[in-house]
Predict the 3D structure of the following.
Amino acid sequence: MAKILVVAETKNGELRKATLEIMTKARQEKLETDAVLVGSGVKGVADTLAGHGAGTVYVADDASLDIFTLAQHVAAVADAAGQAQATQVWFSVSEMSRALAPALAGRLDGCYVSDVMGIEMSGGDLTVIRPAMATKVFQKVKFSKDGVRVLTIRSGAFDVAEATPTGANVVELATPEADARAVAKEVLKEETGEIDLGEATTVVSVGRGVKGPEGVEFVRPLVEALGAAYGASRAVVDSGWMPYNAQVGQTGRVVNPDVYFAVGVSGAIQHLAGMSGSKLIVAVNKDADAPIFSVADYGIVGDLFKAVPILVEEIKKQKK
Ligand SMILES: Cc1cc2nc3c(=O)[nH]c(=O)nc-3n(C[C@H](O)[C@H](O)[C@H](O)COP(=O)(O)OP(=O)(O)OC[C@H]3O[C@@H](n4cnc5c(N)ncnc54)[C@H](O)[C@@H]3O)c2cc1C
């Protein structure tokens, strides 16, 4: 039988939505599931994980784990995977899991698949669906080798079901030794006050069609009216009109929101790789042949400088 260990991630003391999505998927599949929390001050969310179906929550909570270091985190998660006798370890896609998941698979002599967007369970074994070639094709991946299957799963792939926090069965893990070879001293966080692209249910992205930083500000009322996160194409961030962490695409962030607005974005394949999994796509582009329209559910062929104020006004009216 499959036994899942979900590696839970927190932000500002709360579980990330992406973690709750994969907990929900495990619950829907009726899979026996434990979770592991590694960090500093993370134990408080153990009950929430229990409410979302974690039978046991393994916790390594120590000040020395505040900043992510690969050696310590991989040791803690491997310890939890061993104690849980996990056959699968599920991560959400994040900066941390990009490093941690393959290292864990190596340590457990298991198999690693990244960027999973679909999971099919059959008779205890697993087939996963993932994009390849910048989302041009989707692969179905089966595992021919025995060993623990380690997956990173894209956010937005599954919905979050309601859950009531219940008392968690907590197992404290020994704090792994710090790795003297690499010491992370400080993390400098950029305080933008903007909604995180990975957590947002609505994203508005702008492309070179906005013509410059003034155009970025011109579209901002739409972002605010929708309560959206603000993203951009690479052309925009390369031009210095928005920061690099706003870039959506193959070499930027991958987002799967409920609604994605592409404003003055051509829809190059590398951009589509980061957003084509969005549930609903709305494009505004003056070129009717722009590739973005091949993935858009709704489109406005026209000048964004005319269309955006009308959209903002309509959204405000609807809100009233
Ligand atoms: C290895 C590699 C990795 C890459 N990774 C990424 C990535 O992660 N993300 C990414 O975005 N790109 C990436 N790119 C770049 C990508 O190929 C495109 O160059 C880029 O996405 C184009 O950005 P854009 O659509 O904003 O600009 P453009 O291609 O210049 O498109 C601008 C669009 O705006 C429209 N427009 C102009 N004026 C108006 C107006 N007034 N009203 C309405 N529409 C208007 C135009 O019709 C056009 O379609 C990558 C490229 C490479 C080679």
Q: What stands out?
A: The helical segments are 17-28, 46-51, 70-84, 95-108, 213-226, 234-238, 269-275, 304-319. The chain has a mean pLDDT of 94. DSSP finds eight helices and 17 strands in the chain.
